[in-house]
Design brief:
- The complex is a heterodimer of chains A (267) and B (265).
- Chain A has one domain.
- The longest helix of chain A has 32 residues.
- Chain A has 267 residues and is mainly alpha-helical.
- Chain A is built from twelve helices and no strands.
- Chain B has a single domain, classed as P-loop containing nucleotide triphosphate hydrolases (Rossmann fold, 3-Layer(aba) Sandwich), CATH 3.40.50.
- Helices cover 39% and strands 26% of the residues of chain B.
- Chain B contains ten helices and nine strands.
- Chain B starts with a strand and ends with a helix.
- Classes of the chains: A mainly alpha (267), B alpha/beta (265).
């Protein structure tokens, strides 16, 4: 078994242990989910203009956002690794015969997969049977479902590729707070996870296009509901892929650089 | 097996006075002090040897271990371990060494020891037969059996340290670096760890370099000590010889204190 897969598997099993946390998280998902829908309901009712996103698309966007929070959210990083960089625990990692970037990448993927595995099914199931305006409608088509699943998988690869930069910056600054705080705030807003991107003013939408964040949640969730489809969908998935490749390449170079000149902290 | 020649390493340490004003000034103008962590370090260790690396806190022991295990690149000098320069071709090199940092753990916190071992098996690509043989040997010599299926977080420090050392030996390394393997252990655990190091060394001819502040470790394991202070090698040779010179009536601790005193460290 490859060491990267072995790490993935172990972290996956370890992550699934935390069931109490999963239940608590689930409750939060629903509180947020309902609150968000209610807020948008108020907006949609008070406006007479045709909204840029159909109501059912908005509801789908909302529930998928809750179900796949472990895919799009930048927070929820591996505290153990971050602490390890800070206190010098990382010394052990530096004397192992593996490619550290790949190893950490596998580890972060596993954390997100285990988190998602515990969350998505209950959220989706309940959202599908909710009454009236709150109900999650099924995917727009079989094609839309396929595109959604593909793009969601790529989003996992992308979120980890972006996350790696938090660890890289922590090697330099020795504290994850600065790097991660900027990343969390900007990713959530620019990724359309506070206000869906179609509801943003034109100029703001243009700005979000220059960042990788909207390919984490916005793209897969709109593919699901058919808000993005056809040629545009294929084109956007290509951009998503390009971000992944680019950020992994850049991350590898940066990672090698910081680990080579690392001064392990502590005696 | 291990040869260091004229290794130097200097760290820049940020300096600032105490108080808010000094903190504010240091935001704009940082002052650094240079610390010679390793100052012209040279020594030679033969295959199968056990060597005690001693010196007060901050002398450069851990820094040397980090250089030899490929974690830290020195400013100048040469280091050769089994024909490798540790910080070059790092991945290939580290396959041949085992490292234990007594104050840190290499095992995974929330899974049983056996799961951590299995992961190490994958990491080092240890063949099944070798793995089973090593695990049997380790289980027998260090009494792992009773806690191999317990998660790390539920182990005592003594059990943990035994598991740590076992973990560093699974891939049959030819060199073992132990950085304070007995730190914080109670008497029975210390005895067990020493016994274990001796047996493994006799059995597998693994070369062992260990740092410690407990001179009984040295007495139980080896006669050769390398004394380092303020980044320099101050003595390299027989511990019995120093003791003979300073007076046999002194306790081990007193001999070391006298030795530190002589060198003004």
């Amino acid at each position: 078994m490859s060491e990267y897969f072995a790490m993935f598997k172990m972290k996956l099993i370890a992550g699934m242990q935390y069931r109490a946390a999963a239940w608590a998280g689930l409750a939060t998902n629903f509180v947020w989910g309902f609150a968000t829908i209610m807020i948008f309901q108020a907006f949609y009712r008070s406006s007479s203009a045709a909204p840029p996103m159909e109501w059912s698309q908005l509801v789908a966007y909302n529930w998928l956002r809750q179900a796949f929070i472990y895919i799009w959210a930048m927070w929820g990083q591996d505290e153990e690794l971050l602490a390890g960089i800070r206190d010098g625990h990382v010394a052990y990692e530096l004397c192992r015969p593996y490619d550290m970037y790949s190893f950490w990448y596998a580890r972060l993927c596993a954390m997100r997969v285990s988190g998602t595995a515990l969350r998505f099914l209950p959220v989706i199931t309940i959202a599908l049977i909710l009454p009236g305006a709150y109900r999650l409608t099924p995917p727009a088509s079989v094609g839309a479902l396929a595109m959604f699943l593909l793009s969601l998988t790529l989003a996992l690869a992308l979120v980890v590729a972006i996350s790696m930069f938090i660890y890289i910056l922590t090697f330099v600054t020795l504290t994850p707070q600065g790097a991660s705080l900027i990343m969390y705030a900007s990713s959530e807003f620019l990724g359309g996870m506070l206000i869906p991107i179609p509801l943003m003013p034109e100029w703001l939408q243009t700005i979000t296009a220059f960042f990788p964040f909207r390919y984490l949640g916005d793209l897969p969730f709109r593919l699901y509901s058919g808000n993005i489809s056809g040629v545009d969908a294929v084109f956007q998935i290509m951009i998503q892929l390009a971000w992944i490749v680019g950020l992994i390449l850049l991350g590898r170079v940066a990672f090698r650089h910081v680990t080579r000149r690392v001064v392990v902290q502590g005696g | 097996m291990i040869r260091l020649s004229n290794i130097n390493k200097t760290f820049k340490v940020a300096q600032r006075g105490k108080g808010a004003t000094a903190a504010l000034v240091s935001l704009f103008h940082r002052q650094y002090r240079e610390v010679h962590a390793l100052d012209d370090i040279s020594f030679d260790i033969a295959e199968g040897e056990i060597v005690g690396y001693i010196g007060p806190n901050g002398a450069g022991k851990s820094t040397s271990i980090k250089v030899m295990s490929g974690i830290l690149v020195p400013d100048s000098g040469e280091c050769n371990v089994m024909g490798y320069t540790p910080w070059k071709r790092r991945r290939e090199y580290v396959r041949n060494i085992g490292v234990v940092f007594g104050q840190r753990t290499q095992l995974w916190w929330d899974v049983p020891i056996s799961d951590s071992f299995d992961l190490l098996k994958s990491i080092y690509k240890i063949p099944d037969a070798d793995y089973r043989r090593n695990l049997d040997l380790l289980t027998e010599t260090i009494g792992l059996r009773e806690f191999i299926n317990t998660p790390l977080r539920q182990l005592s420090l003594g059990q943990r340290m035994r598991a740590e050392i076992a973990a560093s030996l699974l891939h049959s390394p030819k060199v073992l670096f132990l950085d304070e393997p007995t730190i914080g252990l109670d008497a029975p655990s210390k005895l067990a760890v020493r016994q274990f190091i001796r047996e493994i060394n006799a059995e597998t001819k693994v070369t062992v370099m260990l740092t410690t502040h407990d001179m009984n470790d040295i007495e139980a394991l080896t006669d050769r000590v390398i004394l380092i202070g303020k980044g320099r090698i101050l003595y390299d040779g027989s511990f019995a010889a120093i003791r003979g010179r300073l007076g046999a009536a002194l306790s081990t601790e007193e001999v070391i204190a006298a030795l530190y005193g002589e060198h003004g460290i």
